[in-house]
Protein backbone atom coordinates (compact mmCIF):
# COMPACT_ATOMS: atom_id res chain seq x y z
CA UNK A 1 0.00 0.00 0.00
CA UNK A 2 2.78 2.43 0.92
CA UNK A 3 4.53 2.00 -2.44
CA UNK A 4 1.29 2.83 -4.25
CA UNK A 5 0.76 5.88 -2.01
CA UNK A 6 4.29 7.09 -2.77
CA UNK A 7 3.97 6.48 -6.51
CA UNK A 8 0.64 8.28 -6.54
CA UNK A 9 2.17 11.24 -4.72
CA UNK A 10 4.98 11.40 -7.31
CA UNK A 11 2.50 10.92 -10.19
CA UNK A 12 4.20 7.74 -11.41
CA UNK A 13 2.20 5.37 -13.65
CA UNK A 14 0.64 2.37 -11.93
CA UNK A 15 0.67 -0.96 -13.75
CA UNK A 16 -2.57 -2.85 -13.52
CA UNK A 17 -4.79 0.18 -14.08
CA UNK A 18 -4.13 1.23 -17.67
CA UNK A 19 -6.07 -1.61 -19.29
CA UNK A 20 -8.98 -1.75 -16.89
CA UNK A 21 -12.25 0.04 -16.54
CA UNK A 22 -14.04 1.35 -13.48
CA UNK A 23 -17.14 -0.08 -11.80
CA UNK A 24 -19.46 -2.31 -13.90
CA UNK A 25 -22.07 0.47 -13.85
CA UNK A 26 -19.54 3.02 -15.09
CA UNK A 27 -17.16 1.36 -17.56
CA UNK A 28 -14.91 4.42 -17.80
CA UNK A 29 -11.14 3.80 -18.12
CA UNK A 30 -9.42 3.78 -14.74
CA UNK A 31 -6.50 5.67 -16.29
CA UNK A 32 -2.75 5.38 -15.94
CA UNK A 33 -2.83 7.06 -12.52
CA UNK A 34 -6.33 6.02 -11.52
CA UNK A 35 -7.59 9.60 -11.35
CA UNK A 36 -11.08 8.60 -12.45
CA UNK A 37 -11.46 6.40 -9.37
CA UNK A 38 -11.27 9.43 -7.07
CA UNK A 39 -14.24 11.06 -8.74
CA UNK A 40 -16.54 8.23 -9.85
CA UNK A 41 -19.91 8.21 -8.10
CA UNK A 42 -19.91 4.39 -8.07
CA UNK A 43 -16.83 4.13 -5.88
CA UNK A 44 -17.84 2.89 -2.43
CA UNK A 45 -14.45 3.90 -1.00
CA UNK A 46 -15.44 7.57 -1.07
CA UNK A 47 -17.74 7.24 1.93
CA UNK A 48 -15.02 5.52 3.97
CA UNK A 49 -12.57 8.26 3.00
CA UNK A 50 -14.99 11.00 3.99
CA UNK A 51 -15.89 9.32 7.29
CA UNK A 52 -12.25 8.78 8.23
CA UNK A 53 -11.44 12.47 7.75
CA UNK A 54 -14.60 13.36 9.69
CA UNK A 55 -13.56 11.16 12.60
CA UNK A 56 -10.02 12.56 12.67
CA UNK A 57 -11.37 16.12 12.82
CA UNK A 58 -13.82 15.18 15.59
CA UNK A 59 -10.99 13.53 17.55
CA UNK A 60 -8.91 16.66 16.96
CA UNK A 61 -11.53 18.72 18.79
CA UNK A 62 -11.83 16.27 21.67
CA UNK A 63 -8.09 16.03 22.17
CA UNK A 64 -6.81 19.53 21.43
CA UNK A 65 -9.78 21.68 22.49
CA UNK A 66 -11.03 19.37 25.28
CA UNK A 67 -14.40 19.40 23.54
CA UNK A 68 -16.29 16.37 24.85
CA UNK A 69 -19.57 17.61 23.38
CA UNK A 70 -18.47 17.54 19.73
CA UNK A 71 -20.86 15.49 17.61
CA UNK A 72 -20.83 13.97 14.11
CA UNK A 73 -23.67 13.86 11.59
CA UNK A 74 -26.05 15.75 13.92
CA UNK A 75 -29.65 15.99 12.69
CA UNK A 76 -30.91 18.69 15.04
CA UNK A 77 -28.84 21.70 13.97
CA UNK A 78 -31.51 23.08 11.65
CA UNK A 79 -35.05 22.40 12.95
CA UNK A 80 -37.62 21.96 10.19
CA UNK A 81 -35.07 20.84 7.58
CA UNK A 82 -35.95 17.14 7.64
CA UNK A 83 -32.94 14.85 7.31
CA UNK A 84 -30.64 17.63 6.11
CA UNK A 85 -27.41 17.72 8.09
CA UNK A 86 -25.55 21.05 7.98
CA UNK A 87 -22.44 19.56 9.60
CA UNK A 88 -20.35 16.44 9.47
CA UNK A 89 -18.64 17.65 12.64
CA UNK A 90 -20.40 19.98 15.09
CA UNK A 91 -17.99 21.22 17.77
CA UNK A 92 -18.80 23.39 20.74
CA UNK A 93 -18.38 27.15 20.55
CA UNK A 94 -14.79 28.21 19.89
CA UNK A 95 -13.49 30.80 22.38
CA UNK A 96 -14.35 34.25 21.06
CA UNK A 97 -16.89 33.06 18.45
CA UNK A 98 -20.54 34.09 18.41
CA UNK A 99 -21.87 30.82 17.03
CA UNK A 100 -20.55 27.25 16.99
CA UNK A 101 -19.19 26.10 13.66
CA UNK A 102 -20.92 23.52 11.49
CA UNK A 103 -18.02 21.79 9.72
CA UNK A 104 -19.06 20.27 6.40
CA UNK A 105 -16.39 18.07 4.76
CA UNK A 106 -15.87 17.78 1.00
CA UNK A 107 -13.15 15.77 -0.74
CA UNK A 108 -12.78 16.19 -4.50
CA UNK A 109 -10.41 15.40 -7.35
CA UNK A 110 -8.97 18.55 -8.91
CA UNK A 111 -7.27 16.47 -11.64
CA UNK A 112 -10.46 14.77 -12.76
CA UNK A 113 -12.73 17.79 -12.40
CA UNK A 114 -10.53 20.34 -14.21
CA UNK A 115 -8.00 18.34 -16.17
CA UNK A 116 -5.35 20.32 -14.34
CA UNK A 117 -1.79 19.02 -14.51
CA UNK A 118 1.29 20.95 -13.32
CA UNK A 119 3.24 20.19 -16.51
CA UNK A 120 0.49 20.38 -19.14
CA UNK A 121 -1.72 23.31 -18.13
CA UNK A 122 -0.26 25.07 -15.10
CA UNK A 123 -2.33 28.24 -15.67
CA UNK A 124 -5.56 26.52 -14.59
CA UNK A 125 -6.49 27.05 -10.95
CA UNK A 126 -6.19 23.62 -9.28
CA UNK A 127 -8.19 24.80 -6.27
CA UNK A 128 -11.19 25.99 -8.28
CA UNK A 129 -13.19 22.74 -7.75
CA UNK A 130 -12.69 23.06 -4.00
CA UNK A 131 -13.78 26.69 -3.91
CA UNK A 132 -16.73 25.91 -6.20
CA UNK A 133 -17.79 23.06 -3.90
CA UNK A 134 -17.62 25.39 -0.93
CA UNK A 135 -19.89 27.86 -2.71
CA UNK A 136 -22.37 25.13 -3.67
CA UNK A 137 -22.58 23.79 -0.14
CA UNK A 138 -23.08 27.24 1.36
CA UNK A 139 -25.76 28.04 -1.24
CA UNK A 140 -27.54 24.78 -0.41
CA UNK A 141 -27.41 25.58 3.29
CA UNK A 142 -28.86 29.05 2.66
CA UNK A 143 -31.71 27.45 0.70
CA UNK A 144 -32.43 24.96 3.49
CA UNK A 145 -32.50 27.79 6.02
CA UNK A 146 -35.12 29.62 3.96
CA UNK A 147 -37.18 26.45 3.52
CA UNK A 148 -37.10 25.96 7.28
CA UNK A 149 -38.66 29.40 7.68
CA UNK A 150 -35.62 30.94 9.35
CA UNK A 151 -33.41 33.92 8.72
CA UNK A 152 -29.58 33.68 8.74
CA UNK A 153 -29.59 35.53 12.07
CA UNK A 154 -31.84 32.87 13.63
CA UNK A 155 -29.60 29.98 12.62
CA UNK A 156 -27.62 28.71 15.59
CA UNK A 157 -24.44 27.78 13.72
CA UNK A 158 -21.81 29.16 11.33
CA UNK A 159 -21.56 27.08 8.16
CA UNK A 160 -17.91 26.23 7.41
CA UNK A 161 -17.00 24.05 4.43
CA UNK A 162 -13.75 22.10 4.74
CA UNK A 163 -12.85 21.24 1.15
CA UNK A 164 -9.86 18.99 0.54
CA UNK A 165 -8.38 17.76 -2.73
CA UNK A 166 -7.51 14.11 -3.19
CA UNK A 167 -4.01 15.38 -3.97
CA UNK A 168 -3.77 16.83 -0.46
CA UNK A 169 -4.51 20.51 -1.14
CA UNK A 170 -6.80 22.50 1.18
CA UNK A 171 -9.51 24.89 -0.01
CA UNK A 172 -9.89 28.44 1.25
CA UNK A 173 -12.48 27.51 3.87
CA UNK A 174 -10.31 24.72 5.26
CA UNK A 175 -7.28 27.01 5.46
CA UNK A 176 -9.29 29.70 7.24
CA UNK A 177 -10.69 27.10 9.66
CA UNK A 178 -7.19 25.87 10.50
CA UNK A 179 -6.25 29.42 11.54
CA UNK A 180 -9.40 29.68 13.67
CA UNK A 181 -8.67 26.32 15.25
CA UNK A 182 -5.13 27.40 16.10
CA UNK A 183 -6.49 30.53 17.81
CA UNK A 184 -8.96 28.43 19.79
CA UNK A 185 -6.20 25.98 20.73
CA UNK A 186 -4.00 28.82 21.97
CA UNK A 187 -6.83 30.23 24.08
CA UNK A 188 -7.81 26.88 25.57
CA UNK A 189 -4.20 26.16 26.54
CA UNK A 190 -3.12 29.71 27.26
CA UNK A 191 0.12 29.78 29.24
CA UNK A 192 0.66 26.01 29.16
CA UNK A 193 0.45 24.52 25.69
CA UNK A 194 0.63 20.72 25.77
CA UNK A 195 3.24 18.69 23.94
CA UNK A 196 2.75 15.52 21.93
CA UNK A 197 3.72 13.50 25.00
CA UNK A 198 1.31 15.44 27.23
CA UNK A 199 -1.58 14.44 24.98
CA UNK A 200 -0.33 10.88 24.52
CA UNK A 201 -0.09 11.33 20.74
CA UNK A 202 1.94 9.01 18.54
CA UNK A 203 5.42 10.55 18.39
CA UNK A 204 6.44 8.26 15.52
CA UNK A 205 4.76 10.73 13.16
CA UNK A 206 6.97 13.43 11.66
CA UNK A 207 5.10 16.12 13.58
CA UNK A 208 6.54 18.66 15.98
CA UNK A 209 3.24 19.88 17.43
CA UNK A 210 -0.22 18.45 18.19
CA UNK A 211 -1.86 20.57 15.46
CA UNK A 212 0.71 19.45 12.90
CA UNK A 213 0.07 15.85 13.95
CA UNK A 214 -3.63 16.09 13.15
CA UNK A 215 -2.94 18.00 9.93
CA UNK A 216 -0.77 15.10 8.83
CA UNK A 217 -3.42 12.57 9.84
CA UNK A 218 -6.00 14.31 7.65
CA UNK A 219 -3.57 14.20 4.71
CA UNK A 220 -2.68 10.56 5.38
CA UNK A 221 -6.34 9.52 5.56
CA UNK A 222 -6.96 10.99 2.11
CA UNK A 223 -3.76 9.52 0.63
CA UNK A 224 -4.45 6.08 2.10
CA UNK A 225 -7.92 5.87 0.60
CA UNK A 226 -6.61 7.11 -2.77
CA UNK A 227 -4.24 4.16 -2.76
CA UNK A 228 -6.96 1.83 -1.50
CA UNK A 229 -9.16 2.65 -4.49
CA UNK A 230 -6.27 1.72 -6.79
CA UNK A 231 -5.18 -1.56 -5.25
CA UNK A 232 -8.42 -3.31 -4.39
CA UNK A 233 -9.34 -6.03 -6.81
CA UNK A 234 -12.69 -4.50 -7.61
CA UNK A 235 -11.00 -2.07 -9.98
CA UNK A 236 -8.50 -4.43 -11.53
CA UNK A 237 -7.96 -8.11 -12.19
CA UNK A 238 -4.21 -7.68 -11.91
CA UNK A 239 -1.91 -6.48 -9.18
CA UNK A 240 -1.28 -2.76 -9.10
CA UNK A 241 2.43 -2.04 -9.01
CA UNK A 242 4.68 0.93 -9.59
CA UNK A 243 5.75 1.25 -13.21
Describe this structure in words.
This protein is mainly α and 243 residues long. It has one domain (2-242). Helix content is 40%, strand content 10%. The chain has 7 helices and 6 strands, in the order αβααβββααβααβ. It has helices at residues 2-9, 35-39, 45-64, 110-114, 128-147, 172-188, 210-231, and strands at 14-15, 71-72, 89-90, 101-108, 158-165, 241-242. The strands form 3 sheets. It has a two-stranded antiparallel sheet with strand order 1-6. The protein has a two-stranded antiparallel ribbon with strand order 2-3. Strands 4-5 form a two-stranded parallel ribbon. Helix 1 crosses helix 7 (210-231) and helix 3 runs antiparallel to helix 7. The longest helix is centred in the C-terminal third of the chain and has 22 residues, at 210-231.
Secondary-structure element series: HEHHEEEHHEHHE
**Whole-number tally of structural domains:** 1
Strand content: 5-15%
Give a short account of the largest sheet.
Answer: 2 strands, antiparallel
Q: Helicity level, as a percent range?
A: 25-40%
N→C terminal distance: 14 Å
What's a concise summary of this model?
With 243 residues, the chain is mainly α.
Summarize the helices and strands and which ones pair or pack:
Layout: H1 2-9, E1 14-15, H2 35-39, H3 45-64, E2 71-72, E3 89-90, E4 101-108, H4 110-114, H5 128-147, E5 158-165, H6 172-188, H7 210-231, E6 241-242
Parallel strand pairs: 4-5
Antiparallel strand pairs: 1-6, 2-3
Helix pairs in contact: 1-7, 3-7
Amino acid sequence: MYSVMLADRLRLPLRGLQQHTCHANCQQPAGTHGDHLDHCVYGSGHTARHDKVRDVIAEMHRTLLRDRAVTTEALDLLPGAGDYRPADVAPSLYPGDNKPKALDIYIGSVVQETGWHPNKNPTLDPLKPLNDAETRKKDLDATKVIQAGLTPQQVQYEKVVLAFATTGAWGRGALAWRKDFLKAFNKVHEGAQPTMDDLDLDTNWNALSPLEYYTQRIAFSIAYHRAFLRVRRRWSTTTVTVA
